[in-house]
Amino acid sequence: MLGHGVVTPGREDCTRELGRLGLPKDLTGVRVLDIGCSDGFFCFECEQRGADVTGIDDFSTTPLNRGNNGFAIAKKILKSDVQFFQQSIYDLNPESIDLFDVVLFLNVLYHLRHPLLALEIIHRLLRPNGTMYLKTYFHQDFGVSRWGIDVSRRPMMRFFESDELNQDPSNWWAPNRYCLEAMFRSIGFSNIKHLCTYGNRIYYRCLR
Ligand SMILES: C[S@@+](CC[C@H](N)C(=O)[O-])C[C@H]1O[C@@H](n2cnc3c(N)ncnc32)[C@H](O)[C@@H]1O
To answer: Is the CB–ligand 1 distance for residue 165 below 6 Å?
Structure first.
């Protein structure tokens, strides 16, 4: 959304995502990190709500180069102060940067070869009681009963060696709900809240 009613075309309506995530309306003074921010919709939205925002993306799944992508154009049009770094999550060092109140980790986990490591890094990047908002593709049919409910409750994650998931070789893992929650607990996240499920995506809010 570029103001004056101008909305860029895209594959999904990000304004609906805001409702699913339930981000606070007022983020005044809150330090937000958006990991895998792509063209920055959530960065700019959080900034407009008062947050001090940093976005990172290594552009491993977006074929666009820094300076020539939607993020740079939107930042200019919106006269935004959001900071952007072309960087992988694995290169963030919690020892050398100020910690964050909120980390957005939206639609990135299943693109990573090392999802548990990434979640550990996020946990260390958050201030005590800081909040992670996570959305990911997830696997729904491990141990499914004839009513379509996962009755096994076993934490499992499916690995995609090649491009089996949506013909996209950047998709590596699909955890089921129990696996996600077990990973959060194992790392030390608390107040794990399943926000909603929409199609093949699942949404969580967790505290450090
Ligand atoms: C499906 S897009 C999601 C974009 C945005 N977060 C959203 O929800 O609309 C995944 C993004 O994660 C980025 N990404 C993938 N692996 C990454 C990594 N290791 N570190 C940082 N960003 C990464 C990709 O380049 C891509 O822009």
So the answer is: no
The total number of structural domains in the chain stands at 1
What is the per-residue pLDDT across 143-191, written as a single tens digit (0 to 9) for each? 777 777 777 788 999 999 999 999 999 999 999 999 999 999 999 999 9
Q: Is the CB of 86 under 6 A from ligand 1?
A: no
CATH number of residue 128's parent domain: 3.40.50.150
Flag whether 119 is in a domain.
yes
Q: What is the dihedral of CA 121, 124, 128, 129, to 10 degrees?
A: 10
Domain region containing 193: 14-207
CA pair distance 100, 37, nearest whole angstrom? 15
Asked if the structure places residue 148 within a domain, the reply is yes
Whether 48 lines ligand 1, by a CB cut-off of 6 Å, is no
Measured CA to CA, the distance from residue 33 to residue 155 in angstroms comes to 28
Would 50 be classed as within a structural domain? yes
CA of 61 to the centre of ligand 1 (A): 7
pLDDT at residue 65 is higher than 70: no
Band of the pLDDT at 141, cuts 50, 70, 90?
Answer: confident
